[in-house]
Specification:
319 residues, alpha/beta, TIM Barrel, two-stranded antiparallel sheet, 10 strands, globular, oxidoreductase activity
C-alpha cells in the first residue's frame, strides 16, 4: 500500500479507502479491518446516517491512533425534526457529538459535509466547520455530493477568512458514471483536493456482483463485458480492472470501496498492483461512451485554434 497526501495537507492517506456503511456484525467487521490494516490501509469512512455501522466501527477499532477516521453529517437524524438535517450549525454540532459517542473517540480526522444543502448559507457551514476544527474535535474537512461552484466558493471564502478549507471531495465515479469529469474532478485537481470515489464498481455491475442483472441497460452490459474481457486478458478479476481504471484517471482519485466480506476486500486490494495498458483503457472506454459536453469539449476544440488564440495557439507550452 502506498500513500497520498490528503489535499493540500500533510495527512498521509492510503491509496484505497475503506467504506464501512455495510458493517453490521462486529466479528466480521474485525476480520475486514484486520485485512485492511495488514495491507497498510488506514482510512475508514462512515457517516452519521449509517447508524448501526458507525457504532460497530467504534466498537471494533483497537488502535484508534493508527487510523484516519472520517464521518459525515447533513442527512436527517430525526425525520420529525426540521433541524435534525441540513448543513447548518445546529445539525453540525449535534451530528458530530452523536458520531463521537458512537465511534468512542474524542475527535474525527475528517468531517465531511454529506450533501449540499441549498437552504444553508455557505458562510455558516464553513465557519461552523472551522469552529469544530479549532475546538480539536475535527482535524480536516471535506465535501461530498455537492456542485463544483459550491465547493469552489466555499474554499475561496475559507482562504479569504482564514477558515479551514475543504481538503477532500467525495463523489460517485466509475466507468459507467463519469459525470464528475465535466466540472468536479477538474475543480478538485485545480484546488489541490483529494477525490474519494464512491461506488467505483457501480454497485457491483462492473465486478459481476450486481443483484439487479435484469435491470441493466445495454450500455451497462457492454461495459461489464469489456471489463470481463480485459480482466481475462490481464489475468485479473473484473473488480480489480474496474478499480484500476478509476485510479488511472487522475492522481487525485482515491477509490472508496465498501465490502461485506474479507475476501472481497482482499480481491479489491489486488487492484493496487494492476496497471492497465493503453489498449485496455481504450477497450473499456469505448464500451461505455461518454462526452464531457459544454464547456469542456468546446474549450478543447478552441484551444489549438488560431482563430481563438492567434498564431501562438499551438506553440504555448503550459499545464
Amino acid at each position: 500500500m502506498r500513500y497520498r497526501l490528503f489535499g493540500r495537507t500533510g495527512l498521509r492517506v492510503s491509496e484505497l479507502l475503506l467504506g464501512t456503511m455495510t458493517l453490521r456484525d462486529e466479528q466480521q467487521a474485525r476480520r475486514i479491518l484486520d485485512v485492511y490494516a495488514e495491507a497498510g490501509g488506514n482510512v475508514l469512512d462512515t457517516a452519521s446516517a449509517y447508524g448501526e455501522s458507525e457504532a460497530v466501527l467504534g466498537a471494533v477499532i483497537e488502535r484508534r491512533d493508527r487510523f484516519v477516521i472520517g464521518t459525515k453529517y447533513t442527512l436527517s437524524r430525526d425525520a420529525a425534526d426540521p433541524n435534525a438535517a441540513g448543513n447548518h450549525r445546529k445539525n453540525l454540532v449535534l451530528s458530530l457529538e452523536q458520531s463521537l459517542r458512537r465511534l468512542r473517540t474524542d475527535h474525527v480526522d475528517i468531517f465531511w459535509v454529506h450533501l449540499w444543502d441549498r437552504h444553508t448559507p455557505v458562510e455558516e457551514t464553513m465557519r461552523a466547520l472551522d469552529d469544530v476544527v479549532r475546538a480539536g474535535k475535527v482535524l480536516y474537512v471535506g465535501a461530498s455530493d455537492a456542485p463544483a461552484w459550491f465547493v469552489a466558493r466555499a474554499n475561496t471564502l475559507a482562504e479569504w477568512r482564514d477558515w479551514t478549507p475543504f481538503a477532500g471531495l467525495q463523489v460517485p465515479y466509475n466507468l459507467l458514471r463519469r459525470d464528475v469529469e465535466r466540472e468536479l474532478l477538474p475543480m478538485a485537481e485545480a484546488l489541490g483536493m483529494s477525490v474519494a470515489a464512491w461506488a467505483p464498481l457501480a454497485a457491483g455491475v462492473l465486478s459481476g456482483g450486481s443483484t439487479r442483472v435484469g435491470e441493466l441497460t445495454p450500455r451497462d452490459q457492454a461495459a461489464a463485458a469489456a471489463v470481463r474481457k480485459v480482466a481475462e486478458e490481464l489475468g485479473a478479476t473484473p473488480a480489480q480492472v474496474a478499480l484500476a481504471w478509476t485510479r488511472a484517471k487522475s492522481p487525485a482519485v482515491l477509490p472508496l470501496v465498501g465490502v461485506s466480506r474479507p475476501e472481497q476486500l482482499a480481491d479489491n486490494l489486488g487492484a493496487l498492483d494492476l496497471v492497465l495498458p493503453a489498449e485496455a483503457v481504450t477497450v473499456l472506454e469505448s464500451a461505455a461512451g461518454f462526452e464531457r459536453g459544454f464547456p469542456a469539449d468546446f474549450i478543447a476544440e478552441c484551444e489549438p485554434s488560431r482563430f481563438a488564440f492567434g498564431d501562438a495557439a499551438t506553440k504555448v507550452v503550459g499545464r
